[in-house]
Structures are given as structure tokens and as C-alpha cells.
Fold:
Amino acid sequence: MEPTRRDFLRQAAVASAALPLARLTLADEPGKGVQRHTLARLEREVGMLGCGLGSAFLSGFAKDPDAAAEVLQYALDTHGINYWDTASGYSTKLPDGTVVASESLIGPALKPNRDRVVMVSKAGSRDYDGLRRELDRSLQRLQTDHLDILHLHAFMGSEAGNLDAVEEGAVRAARKAKEEGLIKAFGITGHDQPDILMACIRRFEPDAVMTIFPSTRPVQGRFETELAPLAVERKMALIAMKAVRRAQGSSLKGTDLVRYAMSVSGIQVTIVGLDSQEHLDANAAMATSFQPMTAQQRERFSRYTRLALGEGPAPWELQGYRDGVV
Structure:
């Protein structure tokens, strides 16, 4: 009988446990695993490929918590992928009615590897008490006493007139949590419009910003031409997401789409949904021997993907879209 994915992951985990020295040297040695960057402001070395632990992760692993922990251990030990990204609101409901939170799946893998992982979560609350409650719940689920980054999640253009209240509420709570050591840094995320994120950068001075860098170059490419340079100028950690999401089901090669985002100047980590060990290995192989696309190659590839995908809306542009929820 052919071994299953879970059999393979369990064998890898057992092998690592049997060789404790190897577990500390394989992906942590210079030149081993995916190429690495120093994360701005945090001064932490991270793999340029990060584990996205939202809807793709939940779809692949919510029914099997052991396999979820095993694939995260495998990503860390085999490929040196130490940037793990989730959110307090990422969850799914199983057929029996059980609600599974991404953070709860991550906790068992994070706890024994806490010093090796840059753990990132997000909170959607915009008020002080709401953000503190989300942070407390995240720490409990993740079985840790701190986050490396807490993002204020999914800013929308419609919030532009509410930034005074956000600064007095959620931003103040994040700054207080940073003073207390509950988080090492705070950031912002969004995939709506670059203007709202640039306004937040200038006003809140976050440590990190995470946003979309797909090869289709939405909003006239302004995420690349305006937002990315602003983050670099402010010496902020810049994290790419949604490199593949719109191209799911197309003939486009996933590793090419991820490579495109990684090639954008200033990007330090590119988050890709962790749905299977097969996709993880393919992206990690590319990131291990990474060669950035030239500006000319990126321009040609962008034109090609726009032709291949047409002008339809991205998933996050559809009414009712909820990030990381399945």
C-alpha cells in the first residue's frame, strides 16, 4: 500500500525526534533551507517563504490536528520556514458542527519550537478592549506568552475617516501590548486599496505591513510602485500575500506566481497558504535556489498573467468575502 501524506510527515517527525542535534542544525545551518532575510525592525532572521495558516491550511488540516502539527514541524525542520502567519478570526466549521480555529491547530507545534518561530497573528477589532481580548485569546490558543507580530487586520478604504478612533483604540492597545512584552511588534494588513494602508503607515508608524503583491498588479500597480517604497523608506518589515489566490484553478504555475512576489523590491517574506506537503515542497525548492525575476521579466510575466486571468474580480473583491474563513 502506498504511504499517505500523513505517514510521510509522521516518519519525518519521528526521524527528527530521534536525532535531536539534526533538528537544530538541518534548516538552521547557513545555506540550508529556503533563503533568508533579516526582518526589518525585529532583527530576526526569517525564511523568505512563510506559512500562510488561513483558509488553505484549514481546508487541508482542520480534520486532522496531528497532521497539522506534523506539517508545521516538517516545514521548520526540513525547509527552515520559520515565519508562521495566522489570525484570531481564521476558523472553519466541521460537518459535525465543531468550530476549529487555526491558532488552536498551530499551538501544539509552536510550543516546543517557540524560540525558532516568528509567530504572527492578526486582530480585527478596532477598539482598545476588543483588541486586548483578541490578543489574550490568541496567546491562549497558540500556547505562548507573546507574539512576534500582531497585525491590525484587513484595513478597508471605507475606514479612512475613522483613523482617529482606531489610533485611540486598537493602535493604543497594540502599543501598550508591545510595552508589556506581549508582542514584539505590531503591523497592519489590507488588500483593498493602497491609500488606506499608506495613510496608516504615515499615521501609526507600524513595524510591519502585509499586503497583496499578485502579478496582475491591481490598482494600476500602486502596491508595488507607491506602497512598497514607502514601507522600505520607513524601514518597516514588508510581507507579501495573495500571490497565488486569484490564479487557483488556472494553468499558471504556482511557483512562478510566488517567485514574482518575492522579486518585488523590499519584500522580505512572501506568505503562501499551506494546504499540502506537495505544494510546500515545490515552493520551498524554488525559494531555496531563488533567483529574482528582472524588472523586464516581471513586466512580461505580469502581462501574461493578466491575459490568462482576464479582468474579473479577485476573491477578496467579492461581496461577503471573509479572509481566512472556510
Notes: The longest strand covers residues 118-123. Confidence is low (pLDDT under 50) at residues 1-26. The two ends are 32 Å apart (CA to CA). The first helix runs from residue 5 to 18.
